[in-house]
Amino acid sequence: MARRPLPRILSNGGAQLARSRELARTAADSATDVLQPLITIARGLRRLAAAARRRWSETPKDRRGALLFLAASVVLVVALVPYGPLLAAVVLMAAAAWQGRDRTPPAPEGPDDSQSQRLRSLYEALVPYFSLAEDPDPLYAHGGAWERAFPAYDFDDAGRFAHLVIRYPAHFTDGEAEARTRIEHLLTAKAGRGREYRFTWNEEANHLTVDVLAALPTDIAAQRFVTAPGETVLGFTDPTGVQRTLPLTHGEEKRDVPPVVWRTGVRSTEPHLLVLGQPGTGTSTLLRSIALQALHHGDLLIVDGGGTGEYACLVGRDGVLAVECGLTGALTSLEWAAAETERRLIAVNRARQEGEAPPEDARRPLWIFLDRPGAFSHLAAADGRRDPQSLLQVPLRHGRAASVTVVVAEQLDALDGLGDAVRQHTRARVVLGPATAEELTAALGAPPRTTPVDQVPPGRGYARLGTGPVHRLQVPATPDPYDDATSEAHRQAVLDLLPPRTTPADGERAPVPVEAEAVREREMESKLQELGKLDELDKLEKLDELDKLEKLERLEKLEKPAEKTSAEKEEEPAEPAPKTRRTDAEPVAVAAEAAPREAAAAAEPAAPETVAAKAVAAESS
Ligand SMILES: Nc1ncnc2c1ncn2[C@@H]1O[C@H](COP(=O)(O)OP(=O)(O)OP(=O)(O)O)[C@@H](O)[C@H]1O
Predict the structure, then answer these.
(1) Do the beta carbons of residue 459 and residue 284 sit within 8 Å?
(2) How do the domains of the chain map onto residue ranges?
(3) 231-497: what CATH class?
(4) How far, in whole angstroms, is CA 161 from its chain's centroid?
(5) What is the pTM of this model?
(6) Does the C-beta of 264 come closer than 6 Å to ligand 1?
(7) Any idea which positions bind ATP (predicted)?
(8) 282 is in an annotated binding site
């Protein structure tokens, strides 16, 4: 059956409604202008009537008769006098017009004393920078008129500058970064530190505009953002920075907030991301936020050099191929990722040559997250093994065509330790936490247009996509749900976004019947006694049952490899076992973590995952 088109109001209703609203607003404005005298007279009549009513109610009852008589006499006289009614109407209208006039007191013109004082002292401070000895008509001179130099200004309730336009002489070298920076430093100091300012230099008009920026919202929790496939929300920024807003829910409330959206995939010009920041500034949180968004359309591989278990909530989730915390696991996974990128490239090229669409398993986005690669590089160098960063070359170079995206997070001071490939190919950059203008320029490739401040909340920083502008950024709160310090609302928000677990998490076991569990626990305790680890029992009491069992298993693991000779170790297969998750029509369950884990345990006998993780943390601390 042929489908009937929607009524026009529904198909392009948005534009029509907007136009109609605009027309209605214009008509209302014009009508208000034309009818202004009538409105004033009506308002005046209302006020006169109210005054008459008040007078009547205030008059004592015994005098009301006399008042009524007086009013009636006046009406009679007016009626009898020639042109009396006409004159009375004119007088009444005039009185109403006078009473109905707009009585809002005009805003006081010009600044008050303290504001004038501020403007004058700022003017005097600028004189050495903007004056020239041989200038015949100086705009800036000691004791000169600040009114000419500051054509517009605004103060906040605390009496500090909120907005300021500064005129400067044409001879000022506004094209030189150092000259501008000098002025910006001075203005930041004079206008009050601890606030963020945006400086807009209008070189054509010789104007500098200074705006104080409001703090970015820190109360936005993780949630399903309304974005297209291939779009990732890094965080939120100023409304002037971007042309789009995202509808968000905040408890019961709904609001629109301007996002910083990063586009990945085949058409992206900045297909990989580098996140930098001081420890504790929220880099892992940003990676977790991106991972939760990426999981809707793709598969993830997470390699965590921080070793603090920040990604434990993702282990075994549908779409999460692996979460690696040890060096061997990291190397194995990244080797697989490099091979998978090559496989995808070949598949895509073959499909193109045959004039067909690339196969689904070469198009499904694959995300590689590498948190703190520097820690692994250090370990690998100490152990004489390959630097995991070198395995990122292929995904970084060819990832775009193969729908492979790399996200690297590193500490700001370790920027130089990152490999060339990482630095060259991560054209999307984020810096979180306090950073100097020089550090920001080195990391982002351009200075921010706003003044960095020393005290910022976690998740606050700057983002730059390719050669675009530097945006202020606040990452949505996406805490580790297993962290005790996480609030219940934020924990639930993250848990709601996690896909179901399809494979047992690494180290997890199927629920053990209660009896069997008790037997295992007895076994464990006797084993600990044998090992002379009785003091450990105190600590273990605090853990729940499963944790105890897990610990026992790790102890067993620690014992076994120690018995092997190094020759035996070399004989063991170190062959990587790729954890492929096929995404074509016949999905195969994630080739569970077990295989690579076993390979990892075999190839790295003296350092099982947790030990390696602790070592990494110790190395880096
Ligand atoms: N956007 C955010 N909103 C609210 N809290 C945040 C945000 N980002 C981080 N935090 C909080 O700040 C703390 C540190 O965050 P996170 O662990 O992500 O930092 P990090 O830079 O990875 O630090 P480290 O390198 O020490 O792991 C955590 O308690 C986290 O909940």
Answers:
(1) no
(2) 113-213, 231-497
(3) alpha beta
(4) 27
(5) 0.67
(6) no
(7) 277-284
(8) yes
